[in-house]
Amino acid sequence: MNIFVLCIFSSMLHAISVPSTYISYPRSWCFGQRNTESTRLCLRASLPDNNNGFKVEYTPWLIVGLGNPGNKYHGTRHNVGFEMIDQISREERIPLNTIQSKALIGIGAIGEVPILLAKPQAYMNFSGESVGPLAAYYQVPLRHILLIYDEMSLPNGVLRLQPKGGHGHHNGVKSVMGHLDGCSQFPRLCIGIGNPPGSMDMKAYLLQKLSSVERTQIDEALEQGVEAVRSLVLNGFNPKITRFNLGQKYKYHKV
């Protein structure tokens, strides 16, 4: 089914993705408890045009945080991706209450856009075993797969949101790319954790608990990250995201 969009509605349609063909999602695509009366298989909006209507399909987002399962890894630097998913889950009231494709998932919406939150429950190096099957099952295009993970090249608590990139020697990202046919053309939200001090072993650093100062910086970053994710889901990569990245780059620079 082709979808025609009039120019007069262009400002409204900045907040949605309009696929050129209709995509039928599996019947298991259902939403969480919030707004249950108005939820349906695919969110649609009908806009009239001279007594003829057309429907806009909202393409869902798959938002994945990387980390390691288990209490042993809770609060470590390598698990800040999990923490961002937990923050989105709380603020958007999307419970993480289902296991699918080796991942803990929650299904809901940001605004009118359906989202699937996921925390792979295989270890970090096997994260792709969840992301690949989930993206295929729900027919989520690459441009709507947001990967959230820790990044040592950024100072602790500094965020960067970008439309694509490499793996940066991050084993979790490598695994995800491997299960997406080697593609890297998907968005990612990087959470800075800084570099190991001195000659400290990198693995030991990644699996170390955050200090109290680092914890405060990460908690602030998580709140800012939720706002960035909302902006991306509703409006895509636009000047607001550019300003967000610039503000993050200089967040610790005193003027």
What does this structure look like?
The protein has seven helices and nine strands, in the order H-E-E-E-H-E-E-E-H-E-E-H-E-H-H-H. The strands form two sheets. The chain has a seven-stranded mixed β-sheet with strand order 4-5-6-3-7-9-8, sandwiched between helices. 35% of the residues are buried. Mean pLDDT is 81; it is low at 1-51. 29% of the residues lie in helices and 20% in strands. A hairpin with a 2-residue loop joins strand 5 (103-110) and strand 6. The chain has helices spanning 10-13, 80-91, 128-137, 171-178, 202-206, 212-235, 239-249; strands at 44-49, 52-57, 61-65, 98-100, 103-110, 113-120, 145-151, 159-162, 188-192. It has 255 residues and is of the alpha/beta class.
Q: Helices and strands in order, then pairings?
A:
Layout: H1 10-13, E1 44-49, E2 52-57, E3 61-65, H2 80-91, E4 98-100, E5 103-110, E6 113-120, H3 128-137, E7 145-151, E8 159-162, H4 171-178, E9 188-192, H5 202-206, H6 212-235, H7 239-249
Parallel strand pairs: 3-6, 3-7, 7-9
Antiparallel strand pairs: 1-2, 4-5, 5-6, 8-9
Helix pairs in contact: 2-6, 3-4
What structural keywords apply?
single chain; 255 residues; alpha/beta; 7-stranded mixed beta sheet; two-stranded antiparallel sheet; 29% helix; 20% strand; disordered N terminus
Going by helix content, strand content and strand pairing, the class is: alpha/beta
Radius of gyration: 19 Å
> How many β-strand runs?
9
Q: What's the SSE pattern?
A: HEEEHEEEHEEHEHHH
**Helical content class:** 25-40%
Shape: globular
Spans of 5+ residues with little confidence (pLDDT < 50)?
A: 1-51
**Biggest sheet, in brief?**
7 strands, mixed
Number of helices: 7
> What is the beta-strand fraction?
15-25%
